[in-house]
Amino acid sequence: MSSLAGKRILLVVSGGIAAYKSLELIRRVRERGGAVRCILTEGGAQFVTPLSLAALSEDKVYSELFSLTDESEMGHIRLSREAELIVVAPASADILAKMTQGRADDLATTALLASDKPVLVAPAMNVRMWENPATQANLETLKARGVRSIGPNEGDMACGEYGFGRMAEAAEILDAIEAFFARDAPLAGRHALVTSGPTFEAIDPVRFIGNRSSGRQGHAIALALARLGARTTLVSGPTALKDPAGVETLRVETAQEMLAACEAALPCDVAVCAAAVSDWRAKEPQAQKMKKNGKTPPELVLTANPDILACLAAAGNVRPRLVVGFAAETQNIVENAQAKLAKKGCDWILANDVSEGSGTFGGEANTIHLIDGQGAETWPRMSKDDVAAKLGARIAETLNAGVETLTS
Ligand code: CTP
């Protein structure tokens, strides 16, 4: 699944029987993490209801140019300003003609005229209208101005005729949208693997050994990498967080399950291990709840869990090009992280100050020292989202330059 995580699309639904396919399009864009805001023309409203569009987009639907409430909440100029791509689907012969002429006599055409955002049209009309030189000339003009176009397809038409004019299918329009966003995404075509959250290791059916971890940093990194265009797999231990949109999220509980899920996700270009994996697990987890029958507490015998970061760094011919770990440290942060980098065989360590008073665990901000084989770089204290964005940008830069160290 490629990702439209965080992408904002303004969908103009104009009049045509194919408007029903736009409902499916909204669903598919949202499944991939994109946000869709709809403008419904008067003609479009003959075929689909504002309620359907609102329910699927989970947003308000805009229809009227001179609506006092819409204008006070969200001026029509902002509708297009806040979008990264405007999709006109279905694009009727009439709206194509109006776009060509630069007319602005309703909300849809006004928003289109008042915008410098990229536009994708999915024409849908009767075959004679499509073949009419007026429509063909209009589309040529629009294309010459940079408007992208998808379809129409050939086939039986709702009007009983056969030919070109059927709107492209939702899946085809989705492909065109994805291709648009992928064109210059720095991690397009890359696969990223991220671990996040704690692991829970059962002692018996009700008790477990776990680490403190909200999963916020790992989830934020997965989302940041997806936003940069990477196909992203997130392997997460138990957290209260929602699966990030546009990220393939695999939920696991134990370190062994986390390792198995990571190995199954290989190959990848970059692996970021942000999970707080429990270093140990009970050697013999009990099948039944342990009772307090005796006076002496039971002795817990532990055994070591696999080190997922070290395993990925030693994955031979499927080793990710860039393996990134975190180190939670309370003292001698840079020295300890450098030792950890060598021990685990990874390329970078993000050393995290988790000393008392740092507020890192469960908090919103992190102080990070990025360490590679050559040296250390200290980042100013910033939010976990900003750490994720900065790390994502650094990963993209490094993979695209084919360089594997910070300082070389
Ligand atoms: N890690 C892992 N699997 C483990 C333990 C840790 O993948 N079984 C990863 C973490 O996701 C993190 C890095 O290793 O990226 C460092 O983890 P940390 O807990 O800071 O270090 P430890 O290796 O546990 O060393 P120590 O407890 O001595 O600080």
Question: What does this molecule look like?
Answer:
This protein is an alpha/beta fold and 408 residues long. 34% of the residues lie in helices and 23% in strands. The protein has an eight-stranded mixed β-sheet, with helices on both faces. Helix 1 packs parallel to helix 2 (50-57). 45% of the residues are buried. It binds cytidine-5'-triphosphate. Cytidine-5'-triphosphate binds at residues 195, 255, 273-275, 277, 279, 305, 307-309, 325-328, 340.
Can you give me a brief rundown of this structure?
With 408 residues, the protein is of the alpha/beta class. The protein has helices at residues 19-31, 50-57, 68-73, 76-81, 93-101, 107-113, 127-131, 133-144, 170-182, 216-227, 255-265, 308-313, 333-344, 384-401, and strands at residues 8-13, 35-40, 61-62, 85-91, 119-123, 148-149, 153-156, 162-166, 191-196, 200-202, 208-210, 231-236, 248-251, 270-273, 280-282, 302-304, 322-329, 348-353, 365-366, 368-371, 376-378, 382-383.
